[in-house]
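name: query_chain
kind: protein
chains: 1
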Amino acid sequence: MEKITTEEQYHNQIGKDQFTIMKFYTNWCPDCKNLDRFIGDIVTENSDKQWLEIDAEQLQHIAEENDVRGIPSLLAFKNGQKVGHLHSKFAKTPDQIREFLSTLS
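structure:
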């Protein structure tokens, strides 16, 4: 997953006419490390989507403007609009993430 490091990069990526899935994480988060153990398979299964990650502490204002209150969180964007948000308590298993992705259309 490509890491977003600037606000400009974030806006450029979410503005695309395809689903962009943004993983919000921090380095110290144990649930984030657990997610990293299985997210690769899900990314491969959903190669039609762009997958990116953003450190919620490094770009805190972006996390706040997107109502990221727990990590890890997965947000879906298309054409610059947030179209889905999988909050941290629902992003703990592969099945939860697959179910979230299946709601995107």
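note: The radius of gyration is 12 Å.
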